[in-house]
Structure to design on (267 residues):
């Protein structure tokens, strides 16, 4: 039997007891009225009155006790209800977090797939014997950048350790391959920016996924692209924030002096 059933049983027992006492008291009164000496019997009936008073007091105490039990049960039920509501709230929050992560990852991997498609669509010399596509195009552009700097040093002179000098040459090369480098870096920037502006906790987990797919030529091109006006203000801070140059090959840089172009956190 549950608590509610027990409470009903207790109350019913109390009511029956009270009714029995009232009936007994009334019965004694009626019986005394038929006797020759009701006063004498009335003295005996006083004991019943005392019993009734005692039982009434007991009933009051019992009622107070039962009310206390009911309040305790109500408080217990309230605590259980609050606990259930709190568990439901926590579960709801977990579900919301899971849904948010799923939505983020769906968009993230779509952007990553689109970036890989941009790379796959790169093509140079389709009608020649030197036809290249994909990441080979980015490697070719970086070699062209390096060769242009070497030719400039021979013909015009300059200081290869000077980042500004190398940036000027990069802008010339970028202009020649803007149709290839423009979409590539805009897509890469959009991908990193999406992670940066998201509400996921471990953002480096996703930027590390992007970084792991960058080839040596891509990292080198990104290095010089983002110290120019093309990426200095927006892309460069994110490179430093998420250590996107961690895998850079310093042998691939034009000069060891260029290391200082980025904060140490970029590496």
């Amino acid at each position: 039997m549950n608590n509610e059933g027990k409470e009903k049983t207790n109350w019913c027992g109390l009511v029956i007891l009270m009714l029995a006492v009232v009936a007994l008291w009334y019965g004694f009164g009626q019986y005394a009225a038929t006797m020759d000496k009701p006063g004498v019997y009335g003295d005996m009936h006083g004991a019943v009155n005392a019993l009734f008073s005692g039982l009434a007091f007991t009933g009051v105490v019992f009622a107070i006790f039962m009310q206390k039990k009911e309040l305790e049960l109500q408080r217990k039920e309230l605590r259980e209800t609050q606990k259930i509501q709190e568990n439901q709230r926590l579960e709801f929050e977990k579900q919301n977090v899971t849904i948010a992560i799923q939505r983020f990852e769906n968009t993230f991997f779509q952007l990553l797939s689109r970036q890989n498609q941009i790379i796959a669509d790169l093509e140079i010399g389709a009608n020649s014997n030197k036809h290249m596509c994909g990441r080979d195009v980015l490697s070719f552009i970086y070699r062209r950048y390096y060769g242009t700097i070497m030719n400039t040093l021979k013909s015009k002179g300059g200081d290869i350790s000077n980042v500004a000098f190398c940036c000027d040459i990069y802008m010339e090369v970028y202009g020649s391959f803007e149709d290839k480098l423009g979409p590539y870096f805009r897509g890469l920037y959009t991908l990193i920016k999406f992670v940066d502006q998201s509400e996921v906790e471990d953002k480096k987990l996703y930027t590390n996924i992007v970084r792991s797919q960058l080839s040596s030529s891509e990292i080198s091109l990104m290095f010089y692209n983002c110290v120019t006006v093309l990426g200095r203000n927006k892309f460069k801070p994110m490179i430093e924030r998420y250590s996107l140059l961690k895998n850079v090959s310093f042998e691939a840089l034009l000069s060891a002096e260029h290391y200082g172009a980025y904060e140490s956190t970029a590496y």
